[in-house]
Prior knowledge:
alpha/beta, 2 domains, five-stranded mixed β-sheet, two-stranded antiparallel sheet
Amino acid sequence: xDPVNDHRALRLPPIHxxxxxxxxxxxxxxxxxxLAAGFLAWRGSFDGLYGQDPYAYYDYAIGTLRGWxxxxxxxxxxxxxxxxxxxxxxxxAAQGIGLSPLAGQVVSLCAGGLAAVFTGLLAxxxxxxxxxxxxxxxxxxxxSGQLWQSAMVVMPDTAALAAATGGVWALARYxxxxxxxxxxxxxxxxxxxxxxxxxxxxxAIPCALYALVVLSRQxxxxxxxxxxxxxxxxAVMLGPVVVPTVSAIxxxxxGPIPFGADFEVYTWNPLNALRSEFVNADGHLxxxxxxxxxxxxAPAREYYFTPLLALFILPGLWVVxxxxxxxxxxxxxxxxxxxxxxxxxxxxxxxxxxxxFMPPLAILAAIGLERTxxxxxxxxxxxxxxxxxxxxxxxxxxxxxxLAQGFIERKDADLEVVRWAESRTPPDAxxxxxxxxxxxxxxxxxxxxxxxxxxxxxxxxxTVERRPTFLLINVENVEQQWAGRSPSENTRWLRDGPGLxxxxxxxxxxxxxxxSP
Length: 517
């Protein structure tokens, strides 16, 4: 008997056709998020680029990373603000799709579907007796509005989530089969998740503990061989990214940290869970709820599991706590707990961050729902529980469509700002902008500079040139959120120096002419 795994798994008969149908069901569920999010993006002519970060990921992939490969790659990866795993996938997809944002969207869409499939596979691997929990867990992930929104944008969230969930599933499978290929797959997938989004280094901690326990139950020679092979594989994958990052962190005198912008701005404090106001790299932020309460209530949001399904997380947690399965405790509860503790101690509230603990919470909710239904006993009441699931999934789908549509409309609003500013400036104008800069750089004829990165000396050099110069900012945002920071100080310098003349306002943005006509 293997004490690492749930003892009930040992009584399972060999795989039979019903298991094949279960796999087919999971694959069908895996199509829900890509098809839904893809349709919404197609209907709204949305290319996956918005705000700031997606443009940076896309430009790094098709520009910097592609140029580095063309020049003959070396171990020294070109500098980037964040881990390069997702841009590498964009460039790989672009080989078949072409150099367009669609390559990034396809990666995110496919990864969103895989995240749901791997969630179901992980649930089934941890409890081979239960046929419904894997399907319920996969459905909860597949219908999540936040997953739909993240799947249609050029961002690394779904790619990292799919890699991490697939890695955890492979590790659970290794514990049952003791085959080296599953351990190597787990190590490789988790390593890729880490070099796609740093937060999954936290998930690797309970996974590493579980792997050590599994290895300790095997013959010493097998354990050493498997452990050494996995360690080498992880080192090969993480080395080109982690080594320069750690070297820059330890280097005296500071300086930019390759792939480690998060390490420059993130600080963790357990007291942040009680706070709702912060001053950080994004300026002065005031939230409605304390951070701890925000992330605690997140699973009950309509873009997540809705209150109807989120309530079953607690009974699911109770069931897992009473099990003799170390796998469920470390790979499900441990994953959710370590990410949750990190998020409530950080200085940001961002709903897309909640994706990083969605799979384990979905499994807990599915277990809680299944056990509650089983305890009821009578057919009419079980039918009521089934209706609750259907209503919840429909609620999630409606909310997901609404979230995606609102997101697309915000991108369209930014493009309207571009067209409005172009209609009020001469063709040879230079534009200084903040927060909407990258949208202008990709969709506008105007030469656009980022106000945040400029200093007074650079501003002075620009304003003495005999060229019409304009400023486009959200005045309220700059004066409140960014008070005392570069955008606010640069705006004040322009107002007190060459002067600013307001030409008009459209949506939240005001266009100024810098200096005299």
